[in-house]
Amino acid sequence: MLTGKVALVTGASRGIGRVTALTLAEQGADVVVCARSAELLTEVASQIEALGRRALAVTADVAKTADIENLLEKALATFGRVDILVNNAGITRDGLLMRMKDEDWDSVLDTNLKSAFLLSRALAKVMSKQRYGRIINISSVVGEIGNPGQANYAASKAGLLGLTKSVARELARRNVTVNAVTPGFIETEMTDALGENARHELLSKIPLGRLGQAEDVAHAVLYLASDHAGYVTGQALGVNGGMSM
Ligand code: NAP
Questions:
Q1: What is the value of pTM for the model shown?
Q2: 30-35 sheet: strands from edge to edge
Q3: What atom in ligand 1 is closest to the CA of residue 64?
């Protein structure tokens, strides 16, 4: 399905990014993976190679412009193209608005939103020349409905939705589609921190009555990356057990 395509997945050492990178590789893509720490990342690269694809692991902090430049330079030097960009790297620094520190705002916005702007801007040129591209931004249901204690995170994820739609309009004529996935609560390290009470209360708000799995999100990304989604752009695909209907 994705044979001959090159994907770049940020935050691919664990959680949703890892499963997404492996899912794209299973379908034929060569994959560039990045994260801040190298250890788990090289494991993911080995798993991609074990599937018979080429992999490139680059340690990079997507909140740092210089790291993004280095990541892109290495990706393009190795593969000569990038067809699929998955802006997945994300962090939380939760706290109520009145106590939120400037650095908690800045680090979340830089990691979750500015990185997607920087990578999209750079790869828009590459994809436009190729007359082919897929940009997929991992937003969140929280960007659509808000969440107390997550003003910074929700703002970054809502920002991704605005970025998605604007860039989709700008690049549509170049055959580059730009979409978002808005996961609900997915079982990863990010949600492991939830206490028993919070988890119980959360489940009562999810019509399907369970948390999602990283695979649920990865398959939505796969669809948007595939030729089956060639006529889909500027959309946000909710993968949230029905939380936002
Ligand atoms: P996770 O398990 O915490 O994994 C995050 C990944 O991003 C790791 O590979 C991490 O590796 C990398 N990362 C974090 N900061 C980075 C940075 N500055 N530069 C490069 N890589 C960075 O998170 P997840 O649950 O899979 O979430 C993935 C995405 O889905 C995030 O954007 C998140 O907001 C979104 N999402 C998650 C849920 C959920 O319920 N889990 C719901 C909605 C949306 P290093 O730490 O080594 O850098």
A1: 0.98
A2: 55-59, 30-35, 6-10, 84-87, 133-138, 176-183, 236-239
A3: 18
